Amino acid sequence: MRVVLAEDSVLLREGLVWLLRSAGIDVVAAVADAEGLLRAVDADLPDLVVTDVRMPPSHTDEGLRAALVLRRQHPDLAILVLSQYVEERYATQLLSSATSGIGYLLKDRVADVPEFLDALRRVAAGGTALDPEVVAQLLLRRHSDPLDRLTRREREVLALIAEGRSNTAIAETLVVSESAVGKHINNIFTKLELPGAEKDHRRVLAVLRFLKVS
What Gene3D superfamilies does this protein map onto (predicted)? Predict the structure, then answer.
């Protein structure tokens, strides 16, 4: 896996470079601003971009805007965005831009190295990785919609899917069997009227419906 990293904090950037390389991941470039990120991706064509939301010069949303530009220019490029805080608007913008290979995590998650690396690899493989706090805050402001058809357990399963969990991980978290998880997921697809068309990634579509960005 080839990664371009964008983070303006020298300590965090160098720490992430060391962490990723220690895990056998090839960091082909590590830059400090959005312009450097755009140039590095064009030059190195990585598999994955890991970028902070806020970078120079204004420290507002330069990293996110660069990520959105990159997804338009390179639709197959996987992107994992790191943020200091839960910022719903940014998360929704990112998720609205694509249905696969997208992640949004709080920087605190980096401290849990196995979890962070697992999320990174999921995103690089075309999956999603959403921070549980992001999912929780987005869920709080959702109102009456087709999701109301879901049972409490089905909503729990869907929230874990939104975090990027596999069926095995969901089963372990909820202390149920994998077959039970599979039944809940099939019920979710049915209730959200997501057909089994070959081209549709139904797990991602369900997450987008859950977050109201589709």
Answer: 3.40.50.2300
pTM flag (> 0.85): no
pLDDT at 198 (0 to 100): 47
Alpha helices in the chain (DSSP H): 10-22, 34-44, 62-73, 88-96, 113-124, 132-140, 152-162, 167-174, 178-191, 202-211
The answer on 152 and 127 residing in a single domain is no
Strand partners, 102: 79, 128
Six token digits for residue 135: 């999912």
- Report the distance separating Cα 33 and Cα 182, nearest Å: 43
Q: Per DSSP, what are the bridge partners of residue 49? A: 4, 79
Distances 143 to 51, 72, 138, 210 between C-alpha atoms, Å: 32, 31, 11, 11
**What single-letter amino acid sits at 94?**
L
Write out pLDDT tens, residues 28-75. Answer: 999 999 999 999 999 999 999 999 998 888 888 889 889 989 988 998
Q: Is 85 left (phi over 0), alpha (psi -120 to 50) or beta?
A: beta
